[in-house]
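Let's practice the habit of predicting before peeking. Look at the sequence and jot down your guess about where helices and strands might fall. Then scroll down.
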Amino acid sequence: MWEGVLALPFVLHTKVIILEQENADIHERALTLFASKAKRAVGARGELSIRITSSVEIRELNRRFRRKNKPTDVLSFPSDTPRLAGDIAISAEIAAANANELGHSVDTELKILILHGLLHLVGYDHETDDGEMQAKESKLRQQLKLPVGLIERTNGQPSARKRVARPAARKGRRQ
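Done guessing? Here is the structure:
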């Protein structure tokens, strides 16, 4: 796991949000609280690490684990170890661009990406599941008071450049 700041030990008992660089538009405490709430909502168990990093690093991770030499907004890395939910990597630059384009805050966009990544960690895969992940994401998005979900806006816009992918499949954990 990546190193980071222990934000809320009394709530999370572990490091959650790791910021690669300071950004006034990213509020670590609010994202950590959201991640904890979303993790419970999707039924993820174990430690979770969310790395908010550069598009350069995301591109390298995407190339290394998915053989796609381009940046993406979010990648999920599920764990086979019961104590670990897994890791999520998010491009701060792509999140900021999406937030600007969609008219909401960077924190809101990061929350959307965290929820999407968590769903991948518990076994959902929108590329193969005939809409199950989209339905679950939509329900949770409403429950967590988030605007339009990542799958909905990508599917609703045929020319959308945003594609979210998962480097490793994990079967049998669908909620």
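How did you do? The radius of gyration is 15 Å.
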